[in-house]
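Consider the following assembly input.
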Amino acid sequence: MIRLSLKKTLLGSLGKFDLEIDLTIQDNEFFAIYGKSGSGKTTILRMIAGLEKPEEGFISFNRIVYFDSNKKIHLPPQRRNVGFVFQNYALFPHMTVLENLEYAAENHRKKQIKELLELLDLYQLKDRYPNALSGGQQQRVALARALVRNPKILLLDEPLSALDPYTRTRLQDEITKIHRYYGLTTILVSHDKPEVFKLSNRVLILEDGKISKLGKPHEIFLNKRTSGKYSFIGTIIDIKTTDIIQIITIETKGEIIEVVSSENNFSIGDQVLVSSKAFSPIIIKI
Amino acid sequence: MEKIFTNVDFTPFFLSLKLAFFTTILLLFISIPISYFLAFSKFRFKVFLEAFISLPLVLPPTVLGFYLLILLSKNGILGNLWEKLFENPLIFRFEGILIASLVFSLPFMVHPLTAGFRSVNKNLIEASYTLGKSKLTTLFKIIIPNIKHSFITGIVLTFIHTVGEFGVVLMVGGSIEGETKVISISIYDAVESLDYTTAHIYAGILLIFSFLILVFVYLPNK
């Protein structure tokens, strides 16, 4: 269980604002922090990792106190059981994939490294340098490297924001797999609704440093709960208005579908949930 | 032509190389902690340290030489201590001009290294910390290997500048054959005694040598 109580004055694009968060995250939870850039999302992750210090507050993981402003406790990042994946990957450019992992491992836990390389489909690439890898591959190396030390907490700072939709979907699946396989408590920072929706068990919406909403992604992102048996999230890329209906083209995970709607409050770029009732989806054997 | 070269004493040239070699090696070790501090510390008064280190860039060599002379002389703090420890004076000795070189070449090593340390992507350093690595391990395994070019620049600048220094060495070391008479001073001596042949050869060597080193530095940038 992670307990957080954080206070710090941050400098945003519109001036100073206060980050004020009180939060408990359960073991094995996949927790997402969603919000606009500059709302303080990354700062929360950095505080948990020990890379930044709250002005006031408390951070603990199970019974270990990471930070306590009253008792003047501030464990350095080296002593926190945390794996951190940076937005820009932060791979060491002068080391190969294998060397990046070996650097992270204590006493070169070879077996663990091999397992991770295979789990993340990196074994063929182990002797390459980071600049010879694609974005998705670099991301997987960063993920593997963060896991070498067997952390209990995995912190992901917009890990997939620079990737194409296909790679993104694949990596989302791998992150889910790893989260379960290693029994991690994962905290994901993201400004991508479908991603948060797909991956997390619980989501916090951060606005100007304060919690504006907290709950299950379904409750948070959908105003009315659908009883749909089948649903996915997509982005509207085109709207054609005919006499009384609209034909809406929606892109989801690299696929494009057309949906008919009689409501006309949609606009291009909106993120929407496409769902259907129990009997309406038609499946055809291929 | 052959006769000219056999008559010329190359000792000053080798003395300059020896001085530059030791100055560079020692400054490399001295400058790493100083530059690290300047680049990463949030200490409020570090600007004073920065200014102090840069003084040799702006002070006339005679001013620097004068203060060093006082510091290194028998009655100076450093000269006195040295004599008690090694029973030898510092003034007019190789050790003396070496200490003087360390001072006047310090900014040529510290500046490139500090700039290098500042240029390292902070996330690399933070990633190393979250992977459980100490600051020292991070410095030697992550930071330094990523700023090799800054080290090469610092080493080359320090080396060339030490070979070329004149005023400070003259003030502290004088012109003792085989001990402190480095190549720049030999050129001065040769000209003063109207021995233009020797002056030409020394100056020519220094010119070509400096030029080749700079070519070597700029080569990888192409």
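DSSP finds seven helices and 15 strands in chain A. Ask yourself how this observation constrains the way the partners meet.
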